[in-house]
Prior knowledge:
Helix content is 37%, strand content 15%. The chain is an alpha/beta fold. The chain has a 7-stranded mixed β-sheet, with helices on both faces. It has a 5-stranded mixed β-sheet with strand order 8-9-12-11-10, with helices on one face. The chain is globular, with a radius of gyration of 21 Å.
Amino acid sequence: MMKKHKPSTVAVHAGRSPEMHQGAVNPPVYHVSTILYPDVATMEERGTRPFEGMTYGRFGTPTTFALEEAVCALEGGHRSVAVPSGLAAITLVLESFLKHGDHVLVTDSIYHPTRRYCDGHLKANGIETTYYDPLIGAGIADLIRPNTKLVFVEAPGSLTFEIQDIPAIAAEAHKKGVVVAMDNTWATPLFFKPFEKGVDLSVQAATKYIVGHADAMMGLVTCANADLWQIVKMRAAALGLGVGAEEAYLALRGLRTLPVRLERHQETAILLATWLKRRPEVLRVLHPALQDDPGHKLWRRDFTGSCGLFAFVMKTSDKKHVDAFLDALQLFGLGYSWGGYESLAIPADQGIKRTVASWNPGGLTIRLHAGLEDADDLIADLEQAFGRL
């Protein structure tokens, strides 16, 4: 039924079954570990299909099932798996499809904790990672080996905001039977439809925009088909990746208002980015929705919107100047997350690690998250901080 409705309607209605909960508009919070069975025959029968329905709290409850169903409906996939954090969702995908002797291709603009996991845990377990230029497109075919099992993409990069040609990468990967996974947190399921672009596994750090209130940690992996879901779900169970009932409820609550919040984040971010472009202290703004951004054409082709996260490059390379600017901010908090109602700022350069595609923006980089405050107030805050330079 959800397939015929627009995303904002799906966000409100998917995963809700009031008739199953005495008419309650929201699924109740199920605090449960043990599930009781009426007899041995039922217990044994349910043991043959532990991931269907209620069998044990770690495998899911009606609260987590509702969240997974709603996110999956928005992503357009087969089924989703909820895990305790965004990084847990990323590592679950890597663990599910890679073993000793395998090879994985990862974008050079990847979220730094993902790179750290590849360079540490995967390497220690005999899995080789090759980083590729995020602008490689169909050229990724030249990097695929007989033992390549997975291509991991992220668009845009969470610090450098380069857009990748996801359909071209996916097409080449699928020719060789390679699975494609994507960190889709920036665009959310509302502004990028991964399975329509050839992605097999979509990762959401739901801690960000889905939760939306900076008060819960959550990750989700949505799978394109039943076979992929079975692999991911079994691996999650083997690793003990259950989620808390309260966190699942908070993520589901946040999902209901995601469309209206994301529109506001998008609008404010574009206003701030446009204003920053005119500042004499700013060398360039990194935001794919801006027409002069190098990735704008791909963004316009494949995405239907943007969020509140972007960056800008200062003309100065003096860290003291950047620190003075950041320390002067009053409405922008200094914090590493994003996607919540609050505006945030961080110095980004230390988190940008490149080994293949060089990254020399010409100055020091600051990443901003535009929250839900009034845009004029945020601009005034940035303006007074520039005064410290």
